[in-house]
Design goal:
Elements: E1 30-31, E2 36-38, H1 56-65, H2 71-74, H3 96-112, E3 115-117, E4 123-130, E5 133-143, E6 152-153, H4 160-173, E7 175-176, E8 180-184, H5 190-201, E9 206-209, E10 215-221, H6 224-234, E11 239-243, H7 245-260, E12 272-279, E13 286-288, E14 290-294, H8 299-306, E15 311-315, H9 318-327, E16 333-336, E17 341-345, H10 349-355, H11 362-366, H12 368-380, E18 391-394, H13 397-407, E19 410-413, H14 419-427, E20 438-440, E21 450-451
Parallel strand pairs: 6-11, 8-12
Antiparallel strand pairs: 1-5, 2-3, 4-5, 4-10, 5-12, 7-21, 8-11, 9-10, 13-20, 14-18, 14-19, 15-17, 16-17, 16-19
Helix pairs in contact: 3-4, 4-7, 5-6
């Protein structure tokens, strides 16, 4: 299990699919690996949220909690930015010195015993629990598949800047420092049953209580028969990338890069990527909205222009507007600036139909983020949906409205997409517009790392 072959075994040939020189998985494969873990008194203090959810202010808090916090590896030499949002690292041009610092820090921590590799390769059961939260899954090396194989399905497009950043970090450190987040329909299969049995009957390797109120626990599965049963169950299934599109794309670029540097390309750790795989039937994900803030568009102007295509209802405060948004049928949007709020519903069907692209499915065209990116932004407001024109705020409507108030712009507040719509769009081979989904709970970074040399 876990061996590569260009035409046999877990990898089979398929002419015309992917890059010919790359191994091709014939199913969903999760390989055990020798995890690298922190040897510290309180493991929670060396963990962090995923790299793209960390602001510059968060970095300081994390480093104050522990000097060996994993943020030193995933965001080395973080540049200054707006502390109200996430760090701008992913948009920066890669700086070789920054990534070399991460490599040297990783080596130093391994040499000093701050980080210690496990002796035996394992699949890791990972549990997140807290008030109203219980999610369990498996962390391992997922075999990399071209999206055209329909084994691992993306649902969002990616941008070159974040890929260049993560590629520089992964190639310089020769490591996967945080797992991507995959969902699959396990249908009560052997993998899910084993995950639950391990989490309820065995002693964990790690228990960490983080400041967000969640408890994180980690177990190792090392028994070869159990690992084989997991992979037999997973093999015919599909997985959806819930979080980590840029990192998964980076895994595949790095795979090609590493194999191209060898005279006789060999199988290696770069043919896999670190991933958390969760059965969405057993543990339904929490899908949250991602809001927008338009810096150059005052609320009064945004509302005035919207009235030519939408019904607009005015509310005296944000709380009343959010309550109305929650009850409104889709498509619906709440425009706010921290003072007043205005609900958009009932778009002009003729204008809407004319704006939505004919080469997309009806389901894609009905998504609120699709209507925002194809109709409201370019047609109603005359702007494009770009990083320069539109700022992103995850989950927090109050924060989005507050940011709009500070910069004299407009917050566009949305309801989260339905999980079934995201799955259906991805299964049909389409991608939702950028920053459409925020699946949770996301895996905590720093509980288990993967280095190529040890793996």
């Amino acid at each position: 299990m876990g061996r590569f072959s260009e035409g046999t075994g877990i990898y089979g040939s398929m002419p015309g699919m992917g890059t010919p020189e790359l191994p091709i998985p014939d199913g969903l494969v999760l390989r055990p690996f020798r995890g690298v873990r922190f040897a510290v008194e309180d493991p929670a203090k060396v963990t962090s949220p995923p790299y793209d959810l960390i602001s510059d202010a968060d970095v300081e808090v994390l480093l104050d909690a522990h000097p060996n916090n994993v943020v030193r590896l995933i965001l080395p030499c973080t540049p200054s930015g707006d502390s109200s949002g996430t760090t701008s690292l992913a948009a920066e041009q890669p700086s070789p010195g920054r990534y070399a610092e991460a490599r040297e820090t990783l080596r130093a921590w391994l040499d000093s015993g701050v980080l210690v590799p496990d002796e035996v390769p394992a699949l890791y059961v990972y549990e997140q629990s807290g008030p109203g939260v219980l999610q369990r899954g498996l962390i391992g090396d997922v075999a990399l598949a071209d999206p055209g194989r329909r084994v691992i399905l993306p649902h969002e497009d990616v941008m070159p800047g974040p890929i260049a950043d993560r590629l520089a970090l992964m190639s310089t450190t020769q490591a996967n420092l945080e797992p991507i987040f995959l969902l699959y329909d396990g249908d009560g299969g052997a993998a899910t049953r084993l995950v639950d049995e391990v989490a309820t009957t065995r002693d964990p390797l790690v228990t960490a209580h983080t400041e967000d109120g969640l408890t994180h626990r980690l177990w190792a599965i090392t028994d070869e028969s159990e690992i084989a049963a997991v992979n037999a169950d997973l093999h015919p299934r599909q997985a959806l990338i819930a979080d980590g599109h840029h990192r998964y794309a980076t895994y595949r670029v790095l795979q090609r890069q590493e194999r191209a540097t060898r005279a006789a390309p060999a199988s290696g750790p770069w043919d896999f990527g670190l991933a958390l795989l969760v059965d969405s039937a057993a543990y339904p994900p929490d899908l949250k909205a991602i809001h927008r803030v338009i810096p150059g568009l005052p609320l009064s102007e945004a509302v005035a222009k919207a009235k030519g295509a939408w019904r607009v209802q005015d509310y005296a405060d944000l709380a009343a507007g959010l309550a109305a948004l929650q009850d409104a049928p889709e498509p619906a949007f709440l425009l706010a600036d921290g003072h007043t709020a205005h609900l958009l519903t009932g778009p002009d069907p003729v204008q809407l139909a004319r704006a939505m692209p004919a080469d997309h499915s009806d389901r894609w065209n009905a998504l609120n983020t699709s209507i925002l990116s194809e109709f409201i932004l370019p047609v109603v407001w005359g702007m494009q949906d770009s990083d320069q024109a539109v700022r992103i705020v995850h989950h927090d409507a109050q924060a989005a409205a507050g940011l709009a108030a500070r910069i004299g712009g407009t917050a566009v507040l949305l309801k989260p997409l339905a999980v079934e719509d995201v799955l259906a769009v991805a299964a049909a081979g389409e991608r939702v517009p950028r920053k459409s989904t925020s699946f949770g709970p996301k895996p905590r970074t720093g509980l288990v790392l993967r280095t190529f040399a040890i793996d």
